[in-house]
Amino acid sequence: MRGSAGCGLRAAVLGANDGIISTASLIMGVAAASGRAEVLVAGMAGLAAGALAMAAGEYVSVSSQADTEKADTLREKAEIDADPAEELRALAGIYEDRGLTPGLAFEVATALHAKDPLAAHLRDELGFSEHTEAKPLLAAGASAASFAVGAALPLATAALVPEAVISLWVTVLSLMFLAVLGAVGAKAGGAPMARAVMRVTFWGAAAMAVTALVGKLFGAVV
Predict the structure, then answer these.
(1) I need a labelling partner for 73 at 20 to 30 A (CA). Which of 12, 120, 169, 208 fits?
(2) How far apart, in whole angstroms, are the C-alpha atoms of residue 204 and residue 95?
């Protein structure tokens, strides 16, 4: 899978990975020092906080990208209005660099300038397109949703399994979920699947182990 669809899938996989690792680790830490009720409260709080943090971070990041795109668009429009002939030559030069003959490059640039010069420059000079346009609200919603889906998996596990084995089941099933997501993300990006699965499961296990240790240590102190 390539292009915007592949990028979208990889982003969703990363969000779900974050949700699983964050919430499973939180559950492990709390489970090491308390019972199911505290685990579920902490898990729900972690899901909400994590999803909102992901949404806020993504919104700020993509909004900054949108502001940059808007500024670039205004600057490009001003340059075209100020010297359309020079901008036409610049566009023809881009097409020459891509392999067209000088005559054909100038002919293509002239035709595109006659139709919509700004769109031609945004697409071919700056790399903008409707498929890559920054959409802050959509990005924020997608990040929050993917995180919440990932977080719901260990949380549901903690709610359904016997209290005495919450830590065990959350660990096992979370690592299984991470392995599946690692494989999906690798396939979407055309990367080696085994390496991606090993990487995500190793760091997920490390995060859960460290958080469980912290829970045990502070649980003993408190």
Answers:
(1) 12
(2) 47
